[in-house]
Design a protein that fits this description.
The structure is a single chain. By secondary structure, the chain is mostly helical. 76% of the residues lie in helices and 1% in strands. A two-stranded antiparallel sheet has the order 1-2. A hairpin with a 2-residue loop joins strand 1 and strand 2. Helix 4 runs parallel beside helix 7 and helix 4 packs antiparallel against helix 8. It binds 3-methylbut-3-enyl trihydrogen diphosphate (2 copies) and magnesium ion (3 copies). The site of one 3-methylbut-3-enyl trihydrogen diphosphate has 7 residues, from helix 9. One magnesium ion binds next to loops.
């Protein structure tokens, strides 16, 4: 019930934002409208409002931060799709495909700028702290994205290294969304910090699920090009675990596929997937995902707030673990 009230607030705020964007230059603003209109799960703004909702009925003061964090997230996707050469996003051509790379860079930059403008409209009493948390997370996302790209061409990535990388590129933003929301809702700093920990662990679980879906999702619902991580030699948990669990022959076979030129993409995806199936990699990745989910739930349990509010967040986390896109 609360989540649907929050969703409605978010959709209203986002459409109002799109409606008041300038018309020109069209090459700058049209891709922003296109991106925001294509939906997405709106997970981060929901976390902002649910974080606030733990401490107050009146979540409206957290709305600018909710909008700002969703804008920031969408900015990262525009640039991420260039970096990952991903042609499809939310079932439609990604911005750099539909227009071109320069357009995706610049409209991304504009969304990033708007994100800060929105965050700056958070309540005075918490503004400094909100901006400190947000700018820290923003820089960490850049660090995570750089590591993700570095890892593509590295052969010595470890599972702890991977977990560190996904904490930065993905989890810190979910964590910051919750902490910022809580502060906007009047939470004491220590309680807001516990929510950060909840968000960090659920965020790690979320990216593990994203990596699982990249290999195993039913393409129509997924909205992205499945197998992209395999083609790009992304050092996901799945690949690292497969290298760890395989015997000498299978490891050689995997390493041959890693060295394969991109022209044999389809064959490569099928072959690597077959190795994953043989080794039970999906199950291993899901076990790791649930481990982080459980750590997150434990952190949530320690927050001093009403049980109903915490239940909303738990249900939200539950939904993320079983999603199909
Ligand atoms: C995609 O995030 C990028 C990752 C961090 C895995 P989401 O899966 O939240 O994307 P949308 O906004 O719902 O499309
Ligand atoms: C995305 O990770 C992380 C950020 C956008 C910061 P991915 O590259 O796995 O996300 P998708 O799969 O393209 O959504
Ligand atoms: Mg990426
Ligand atoms: Mg990507
Ligand atoms: Mg992915």
């Amino acid at each position: 019930v609360e989540l649907s009230r929050y969703s409605q607030l978010i959709e209203e705020t986002l459409s109002e934002f799109s409606r008041t964007l300038p018309q020109s230059p069209e090459g700058l603003y049209e891709p922003m409208r296109y991106t925001l209109a294509n939906g997405g799960k709106r997970m981060r703004p929901l976390l902002v409002l649910a974080g606030a909702g733990l401490f107050t009925r009146k979540v409206e003061p957290a709305l600018p931060a909710a909008l700002g964090i969703e804008l920031f997230h969408n900015f990262t996707l525009l640039h991420d799709d260039i970096m990952d050469q991903a042609p499809l996003r939310r079932g439609k051509p990604s911005v750099y495909k539909n227009w071109n790379t320069n357009i995706a860079i610049l409209s991304g930059d504009a969304m990033y700028t708007e994100a800060f403008r929105m965050l700056a409209q958070s309540p005075r009493e918490v503004l400094r702290e909100v901006l400190a948390i947000f700018t820290k997370a923003s820089l960490e996302v850049c660090e995570g994205q750089q590591l993700d790209i570095d890892f593509e061409s590295r052969g010595n990535v470890t599972i702890p290294g991977y977990l560190h990388m996904i904490s930065l590129k993905t989890a810190v933003l979910l964590a910051a969304a919750l902490e910022i929301g809580a502060l906007c809702g009047g939470a004491p700093a220590e309680e807001a910090k516990k929510l950060y920990t909840f968000g960090l662990q659920v965020g790690i679980a979320f990216q593990l699920q994203d990596d699982i879906l990249d290999v195993f999702a039913a393409s129509e619902k997924f909205g992205k090009t499945a197998g992209g991580d395999i083609v790009a030699n992304k050092k996901t948990f799945l690949l690292l675990k497969a290298l760890e669990l395989s015997d000498a022959n299978t490891r050689l076979e995997l390493q041959r596929w890693l060295a394969e030129p991109p022209s044999r993409a389809e064959e490569k995806v099928a072959a690597v997937k077959a190795i994953y199936d043989k080794l039970g990699i999906r199950e291993a990745a899901e076990a790791e995902m649930w481990k982080h989910y459980n750590e997150g739930i434990a952190a949530l349990g320690s927050v001093s707030a009403a049980a109903e509010g915490k239940m909303v967040l738990k249900q939200f986390a539950d939904q993320l673990m079983v999603r199909e896109h």
